[in-house]
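Bumping with the actual sequence this time:
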Amino acid sequence: MVDVGEKPSTAREARASGRVRMAPETLQKLQAGTHRKGDVLATARIAAIMGAKRTHELIPLCHSLPLSSVKVAFEVEGPDTLQVSATVKTTAQTGVEMEALTAVSLAALTVYDIIPIILPYRERRAGPCQSSIIKSYPVNQMRRFTF
């Protein structure tokens, strides 16, 4: 683990995003939140926040950070794509980009995991997620603020 003990604590923020592509009908049902699994996006948001808070337990040698904020947003991009973004803030000696990436990853994985349940049975038999894919996880923004 890198020694950050000599670094001053500064306010830090990181934003990451990813996309989950699925059949347009699936995205419509996901947005409506009316299927038997309830509000998938609320579940994905909770998974993202929990993941960000536990990043140090998931990634070897990652520092444990006191997070001051984790915000997760979902936005529909076109007829078949859901964008997931997470903005994480802390005041610490190291950045929060790994926490933002973990939040986005877990939100996208939660949505992806529930997609087969949304699909009609005949589509699940052929392969539950043939038309679904998780794409790109760039860190869109990292900022450090000095006091």
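The tokens above came from a reply further down the thread. The radius of gyration is 17 Å.
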